[in-house]
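Homework help board

Subject: predicted structure for assignment chain

Our instructor gave us this sequence and asked us to write out the predicted structure in token form, then describe one feature. I got the tokens but I'm not sure how to describe them. Can anyone check?
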Amino acid sequence: MLARVTRSSGQPEVFGKYHLLERIAVGGMAEVYRARAYGTAGFEKILVIKKVLDHLMADEEFKRLFIDEAKIAESLHHVNIVQVWELGEIDGHYFMEMEYVHGLDLSRLVSRARNLGPFPVELALFIAAEVLKALQFAHSRTDAAGAPMRIVHCDISPQNILVSYAGEVKITDFGISRAAFQSRTQHEVIRGKYAYMSPEQVDGKPIDGRSDLFSLGIVLYEALTGHRLFKARSRDETLSRVRRADVPPPRLYRSDDISEELEAFLLKALARRPEARFRDASEMFDALATIVVREGHRATNNDVAAYLKQVIESATTRKGDSAPAASLKALPPTAVVVLAAEAAPPPRAIAAPRASLKELAAEWSEIVTDAGGEIWESDEGSVLAVWIAKGGLKDTVERAVRTAEAIQRSATDAAYRLSAGVATGIVRLRSDSNRPPEGWELAGPFYLARWMMNLSAHRGRVLVTEIAHKKMAGSTQRLGRVAIQGNRYVNLYELG
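My token output:
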């Protein structure tokens, strides 16, 4: 939320030689303003002023650390680091004059992009690689005598990764984050960021660059899966989760797009013990670059810029009254039940499959058709089936669930392990295609059913939503309230 900063006269607030135009953000450490500075011959420059909060300036320890670290931040000249131009004091307020990055932080970008489906893998990896370039530069800095400066950011989080409309990626808050972490009052100034700390950081142990790499691993994990890793309802539970560093395999949430190699990369970055992680940012970058090349996840700054534009335009369309949105609203709402199912072969040491994936998919198609469903997508070993609830949701749910059970028996008989999810929802179908508008594959109940299918992989049981649970006659067991996207939660049940 941008707040315009004005005086009673209606003019921007004057802060020394700066005009504070808009307050971009306020956090536990500082207020951030978009500002304008004036020079000779009518020269003007848009920049950022970060004013340290008054109560922190009363802490002499924090003030000393902040000044020391801000001086270091001024020396970090790198394309992927937000430049600090000046450290100063005006009327008792310590501030930093910083480069203005016109765009969004990664937290806002990922949040606003949710309606477009999962965050693109190639862009997430590109952003992580750009951050690693900045960390390698900072971590390897030496002083005039050649001694390592041992710089650690201490607050690598989505809010501190900025993405510009030109596709640039920059990290910010180098000086202020480290000063906050070292201060005895750190619990006051970095409230809310525990979910992105390393286990050694939350325990107050000595840290090095591998702590930043762990934090970046959290950021990348969450961008790829759409699932918060350590964040809990309470501070203590969040800290407990970080200390344990129990990381669910990311392929549980997105098996189609996250390869086993990329999963192994994430799990190594998120190892609880620092010595089990990547040695430094350079090694982590090389490992990531190998995956990008091998799996074809290449992206450029232009790709990031194009995606950012798409996200902004999508948000504008949702808020506006565009013709496509208006015509879509004119379509009658239709209740559907969606089944997403996928078979995985067992480990060779356990059993040999008794049918091919292609044969299995063909058998599933017959089962779905016999139950009155439609096959909207089919591949070797996977199927997306849809029932349009013309005769009432209860009967339709029961048919979909019976189909899921039949598919599970089919998979078991063929010595495969099944992942499946049944979701209900309301969609608007076009009369010409009897399908939702473009992009339906990763929207509404279709996305939810796929997501549930991936979640069920490690348990081998069919998952159903709460609505389906209430409509069906068979027995179910409550799995729990599970986060699906950001602050969205669903109650899930397993078939008994």
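Reply (TA_rk): Your tokens look well-formed. For the description, you could write something like this. The chain is about 40% helix and 25% strand. That's the kind of observation they're looking for.
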